[in-house]
Specification:
single chain, alpha/beta, five-stranded mixed β-sheet, 5 helices, 43% helix
């Protein structure tokens, strides 16, 4: 578990980059042979792109690093439970394992609402490890949305 803790700390640093840009603070990594080969943070607001989630950006960087869309021996690490789009992209990429921190009760597709990676009807399944540094990540998410609400109140 400590190996995942170390990776999650790096993903949290990516999430903090998103937070600093007023993006929902989610960070993600792709790890291959104990090496980080892709990283990303949410950029949906700054890129005006609903698909610019941290996981999608990290996956894209990993594709470029390996020069292949197949990430069969890779681990996707995300601070927040992947949504249906990101879980689907991980499935299509043949990710081996998804490790995430905090659950997402509104869009979570790795156990909270849906469980796409472990759905046996698909031809590929992904091992899921959840709850890595969950309290720290959930606290950061709560603070981010509190900051957003406080800004709105000051404007009104």
């Amino acid at each position: 578990m400590s190996r995942y803790h170390d990776y999650m700390e790096v993903a949290i640093e990516e999430a903090k980059r998103a937070y600093a840009k007023n993006e929902v603070p989610v960070g993600a990594l792709v790890v291959f042979n104990s090496k980080i080969i892709g990283r990303g943070f949410n950029q949906t607001e700054s890129l005006h792109d609903a698909t610019a989630h941290a996981e999608i950006i990290a996956l894209s960087a990993a594709y470029n690093y390996l020069n292949d869309w197949r990430l069969e021996e890779c681990i996707l690490v995300s601070t927040l439970e992947p949504c249906p789009m990101c879980a689907g992209a991980a499935m299509l990429s043949r990710i081996k394992t998804i490790v995430y921190g905090a659950k997402d009760s509104k869009f979570g597709a790795c156990g909270s609402i849906l469980n796409i990676p472990e759905e046996r009807k698909f031809n590929h399944n992904i091992e899921i490890i959840s709850g890595v540094m969950e309290e720290e990540i959930a606290s950061m998410m709560k603070q981010f949305f509190k900051d957003i609400r406080d800004k709105k109140e000051r404007i009104n």
